[in-house]
Design brief:
Distance between the termini: 23 Å
CATH topology: Immunoglobulin-like
Number of strands: 8
Largest sheet: 5 strands, mixed
Structural class: mainly beta
Order of helices and strands: EEEEEEEE
Amino acid sequence: MGKPSNLNTPSITISHLVRTQVVTRTVTNVAEEETYVITARMDPAVAIEVNPPAMTIKAGASRQFSVTLSVRSVTGSYSFGEVLMKGSRGHKVRIPVLANGYRR
């Protein structure tokens, strides 16, 4: 079944992030074909990276992207951020991200 963080929900939460974890999300386009630029930002204690940085999704099709989270420093509290998808037709998707970094 995999990790609970890979459950395809419209948010990403990792309550016990050790070192680095990759989370996958699947998005489905319910409108006309659109190209999305994907960016991410996060509190400084956790590094965030998305891959691919852009993708085109045809009408009715689904595509996957990955989000890599890495602990930079242990703060004892959650770090907050988001993944932003901006579409060529003006659509915007925001995925909230929360992660709590640990040494082990």
